[in-house]
Design a protein that fits this description.
Length: 343
Amino acid sequence: MRMNAAITGWGWHSPDRILNNKDLEKLVDTDDAWIRSRTGIRERRIAGPGDTTGSMCLHAARTALDRANLPANDLDLVICATTTPDHLLPATACLLQQRLGARHAGAFDLNAACSGFIYGVTVASQFIQTGTYRRILIVSGETLSRFTNYHDRNTCVLFGDGAAAVILEATPQKAGVLSTVLGSRGDVEGYLSIEAGGSAQPATADTVATGAHLVRMRGNEIFKMAVRCMAVAAHEALDQAGLTLDDIDHVIPHQANSRIITATQQAIGVPPSKVYVNVEKHGNTGASSVPIALGEMLENQPIRVGDNLLMVAFGGGMTWAAAVLRWADVAAIRRERSLKLSA
Ligand SMILES: CC(C)(COP(=O)(O)OP(=O)(O)OC[C@H]1O[C@@H](n2cnc3c(N)ncnc32)[C@H](O)[C@@H]1OP(=O)(O)O)[C@@H](O)C(=O)NCCC(=O)NCCS
């Protein structure tokens, strides 16, 4: 029997500290009105001294496991989507596997920048649809504040920190991930990069002094490409799923900038009422942006069995991704699972 991959648990976590636009006025030559009108961002959450990508992911993953009513021991795989891992080695996913007690799970990190969560959903759904695995944790986390240049007004107003997770689980229901689309253009990698700290430019006193280990960006070019690629990917994902825009109940776009979201919503051709936006409170949280928005939406808006969701993202690489999911009868999946596990 062909299995589908449905979300059965979700959770998100934001650090306590708030960096608002007035705070940024003290750091660079900017102002609240400019930031709001050009980006829609009012404030973003910033990791405290004790927070890391791994620690924030741990909170989000535990909430997702609790919601799914699933012991970590029953996970087959942990995928951590991040551009800002705790270390180059080991993978943050391995730290999470141990801290969660997911003793039977493989674990790896995945770097597709802001598209990372949808890339993770794509990989995980393949494992489930082929019957290899049944229960996978996909967790996205970013501590972008540690890689942001707070002397550069072009970038420091945009980014925030946070984490979010989902449990993707096998089900015979005709629901879950219906289609996914991935894309990449490495020829324009310079639009958004952290040049130093890897093997091409190992960290030295000089790279630190010149800020080469911090995010550099060409915002204007990204803006245009992001809108174009997300609109095309969204339509490809809809076609693959055999759905039209009218079938879609909720759109969860990458939360980079409210102007990009509006332009993408118009380019896709979907009404604004269907699009979930929370960029004003979080800024751009990289790979965590889509799943934080998804988690918030699930907490704030009723979702019905059979609702169709479209997720779409764009990020460094450059990368882009879209996915169409149908909301499953989650209670039934949990019930069937507990019957099988107790049998
Ligand atoms: C960064 C971004 C907000 C800039 O908005 P924009 O309307 O494109 O603005 P521009 O880059 O054309 O800059 C206009 C002016 O504002 C200035 N400016 C840039 N940041 C500013 C800030 N924080 N405060 C005040 N002025 C600022 C620029 O220096 C420029 O000044 P100039 O005309 O004297 O040269 C926008 O391009 C953007 O959001 N791009 C996408 C970035 C992104 O999402 N990156 C992550 C991808 S996942």
